[in-house]
Specification:
By secondary structure, the protein is an all-alpha fold. The chain has helices at residues 2-12, 16-60, 64-93, 102-126, 135-161, 166-196, 201-235. The two termini are 36 Å apart.
């Protein structure tokens, strides 16, 4: 009975080819809607990483009162972005036909969300207890935060290009690796300074936790860019 009903639908819509075209168009429309939501989510990730840069700059300037307020704002922004992420994942879990694999889209969203988690973790450790860094280290930690912002902006551009031009998405994703390499160089220099710095055990490990999270943000951007490249290459023939 169901088979006969499906055959009747085919005939009413002008045959199998026409029906497949309609289904494909519906799937493409759903995919575009989800990609638009993901693009909006990446904008929220950019807001979070910019707030982290503000936190780091206030830390480097020993502006502890303003620092605490900025860290609190970052937590609120990260929580709001979590709601956006959950809404996208809920939409994907409903099923439906997508030219792109829903698992790939879900993986992209959760991987982008991990950048927010690392940002919130870095801010939490910065405000855990007060301490000051030597001037050269302050300059470098601000540079590392700015390198993270650049990497997130580069990744965001690549993700947004997924909805318009897969070849452009591949090109933009390739640029993120260079941004991640810059962050790695800054991190390595900071690490050398840290082991030469005469400080107490608690401060050393607090700083280590901060730096590792800042460096992990750029690493995660590079991993996400690789995922974007993988998805674009897989689906580029269906453009």
């Amino acid at each position: 009975m169901a088979k006969n009903r499906f055959k009747s639908i085919r005939q009413a819509m002008g045959g199998e080819t026409t029906l497949e075209g309609v289904i494909g168009a519906m799937g493409k429309e759903r995919e575009e809607q989800v990609l638009e939501r993901i693009a909006n989510f990446t904008d929220e990730v950019v807001v979070v990483i910019n707030k982290l840069q503000d936190v780091v700059e206030r830390f480097a300037a020993d502006q502890y009162e303003e620092l605490a307020a900025s860290a609190k704002e970052l937590d609120a922004l990260e929580s709001a972005a979590d709601d956006t992420k959950d809404a996208i994942l809920d939409r994907l879990s409903l099923g439906g036909i997508f030219p792109m694999n829903r698992a790939d889209l879900s993986r992209l969203v959760t991987s982008m969300d991990s950048i927010n988690n690392l940002s919130a973790g870095a801010a939490d450790r910065i405000v855990m207890r007060r301490f000051s860094l030597p001037s050269p280290m302050n300059q470098l930690i601000v540079e590392l935060a700015r390198a993270d912002v650049d990497a997130v902006l580069g990744l965001t551009a690549a993700v947004k290009a997924m909805g318009t031009d897969l070849r452009e998405a591949i090109r933009l994703a390739g640029l993120v690796d260079k941004m991640e390499s810059k962050a790695d160089d800054i991190f390595a220099e900071l690490y050398r300074f840290m082991f030469e710095w005469d400080t107490d055990y608690k401060t050393f490990h607090q700083l280590k936790a901060i730096l590792e999270r800042l460096e992990s943000i750029a690493d995660r951007c590079s991993q996400n860019a690789e995922l974007v490249r993988h998805m674009a290459l897989e689906y580029i023939e269906s453009e």
